[in-house]
């Protein structure tokens, strides 16, 4: 039995750094040379069943792994940095969409993902499949004149600044290489969620939940203090979202700051201090603020006092 006969064969070159392959599933006693010949023949036919994703379909990722490769080529998994096994029906649907994409569109999207990898570092290999499907649909919508809206742009920008920056770079690249379609910043926010999920190896639901929680806190603060997130010159204020994100990160890592002026701040800024306490209770998920978090409440109260003077009131 030759080692080459057991190597995966490329179904689709996703980019210079990622390929979609099918792993031979052979059975004991099967003639491997014949199986390899059959696989090669099947790969080069137009039989649509051959391009349908199966449980043997993988994404192989590695620097230069797809360079000058073509469908039907054998490739050694040893050349890949990581591999991703497609098992779930949901992921199989993503693969079906990817296999139906125009090669030029797929090349542009995958090159954009490579830019994000260069900026963010290692991402889960599934990002090539998931984002290819997502972005191709967004390009189609934008090309048909449909407006892409994302109500969480500011929250995503604040919660995931590196991913948002990478997503903006991706959108800029795609827009410059795609005719008749311009993706807006709203789409960059959607992409940023997928990039964060790929960095953590989780589903996109987790970063989306973080953004939604931040949006809820922003609405709560604005409602309690009678303020908006619009500055007096009409621009969007990002400072509150950034401050709450930084505080949430400290709470998550249990790095609570003390504040020797806490009692004075509580006395002189009662409204802001009360809101700050409630925000922290929501972050910590407790009914009453613990004493070790009182210093953080004082810092937030001072911030809120200055912030509400820089934005338009809600009434």
From TrEMBL:
GO BP, sorted A to Z: regulation of DNA-templated transcription
Pfam families: CAT_RBD (PF03123), PRD (PF00874)
Signal peptide: none
SUPFAM superfamilies: PTS-regulatory domain, PRD, SacY-like RNA-binding domain
Limits of the PRD domain: 100-205
Molecular functions per Gene Ontology: RNA binding
Domain of life: Bacteria
Protein name per its UniProtKB record: PRD domain-containing protein
Organism of provenance: Corynebacterium glucuronolyticum
High-level lineage: Bacteria, Bacillati, Actinomycetota, Actinomycetes, Mycobacteriales
